[in-house]
Amino acid sequence: MHDDFERCVRAVQAKDARFDGWFYTAVLTTKIYCRPSCPVVPPKPRNMSFYPSAAAAQQAGFRACKRCRPDASPGSPRWNERADLVARAMRLIADGVVDTEGVRGLAARLGYSVRQVERQVFAELGAGPLSLARAQRAQTARILIETTTLPMTELALAAGFGSIRAFNDTVREVFALSPTELRQRAKGRPSAAGALVLRLPYRKPLCPDNLFGHLVATGVPGVEEWRDGAYRRTLRLPHGHGVVALRPEDGHIACRLTLADLRDLPAATSRCRRLLDLDADPVAVDEQLATDPLLAPLVAAAPGRRVPRTADGAEFAVRAVLGQQVSTAAARTHAARLVVAHGEPVEDPEGGLTHLFPSPEALASLDPETLAMPRSRRRTLLGLVSALTDGLDLSAGSDWEAARAALNALPGFGPWTVESIAMRALGDPDAFLPTDLGIKYAAETLGLGGQAAVVARSAAWRPWRAYATQHLWATGDHAINRMPAA
């Protein structure tokens, strides 16, 4: 979008927050870059220049505006909507892969050479993987500076910088303030070390009912809970574990993170955003779905529905198999037994969380005779675990079609299981489950016809069929579609 000069100018002059994260406005006279919705008086069009990413603006010599904080705007929906190389690379960079494995590790995960990845990312974003990771480290540093009392030396290492000098230089260059000055400007009291209180922005509107209602209704005891008006869960992260509490607020999600290692802040934040689908463009989704006369009233009644996703693709795949042909309550019971037997214990002084969900490696030693389920489903679960330990990629940077093909090749995997994983774990916005009982019930209620008719009609909903599914599910009177009481 940043290449459409006139459209970008109109968005800036209208201070349209819907375009925050889609592009960044650089002001040539002040050398500052802003969100489109920046509250200051817009510059003259001749003094505007537009960039596709904060990293590209920084690389061009612009520093972040102190008013609108463009470095903290919602992420671009493009990276969650697309399955191409650049989108996969961006999802992995957001998950901290460059910080932990370098550009070579990023390229290896994507199955391309380093040169190919760098060339394609730079061509589309105006900055390479290292610059994008640097911009993310700068934002992580700002969060830690403003929300903790950590000494700057420890903070620099936690944010991913190799030296205190690189940390100081980057903060000054990006924010035009020293780390000490940033801390002095911060409002409110810092959190205790290890506990971070963040605001995760999103594009309005947002319908929290199906989002939090689904996560809580399907939550695994010990791993997830609803407490004091917040959804809480444990997280398995690159350097340790974490516990997060997420609460819907006006214009943002209140996020409280307790991390075993502060270096995991970028990955934890990325996974929370992905879990709640916060980088979606709800206006674009709703406009498309509302063109169907039968969906239009549903969209009008609950604008901004998101797709509840997952913080761990392998975890969700295991849970999807446990949920085959059984009730939600039975699936939770099966998952809870696995957690107690094979999960990693954690401490949670603030609530009732007890374990991390078992990793595929931990489940590799699973005795199938201990599973209270049909023998065929035991084989399905063991086949999935074997595939995951052998390298089946269901992470944020996975190839959606390759993952679908691999899942379809496993015994016991039908369309419902594969598309459930595509929707919740892979993040495909067009995943669709026409065989789901909830979809069949909605089709009957709305007069959509049989399965073949629903599939044919769904062509007009593309590429947002996962969001249409949320609206269709909501036609049933199910607790899974309602947010629990605070």
From TrEMBL:
Domain HTH araC/xylS-type span(s) in chain numbering: 87-185
Keyword Nucleus: no
Pfam assignment, any one: HTH_18
Cofactor: Zn(2+)
Cellular compartments per GO CC: cytoplasm; protein-DNA complex
Stretches that traverse the bilayer: none
Record GO terms (molecular function): alkylated DNA binding; DNA-3-methyladenine glycosylase activity; DNA-7-methylguanine glycosylase activity; DNA-binding transcription factor activity; methyltransferase activity; sequence-specific DNA binding; zinc ion binding
Keywords, comma-separated and alphabetical: Activator, DNA damage, DNA repair, DNA-binding, Metal-binding, Methyltransferase, Transcription, Transcription regulation, Transferase, Zinc
GO terms of biological process kind: base-excision repair, AP site formation; DNA alkylation repair; methylation
Catalytic activity: Hydrolysis of alkylated DNA, releasing 3-methyladenine, 3-methylguanine, 7-methylguanine and 7-methyladenine
EC number: 3.2.2.21
Name recorded for this polypeptide: DNA-3-methyladenine glycosylase II
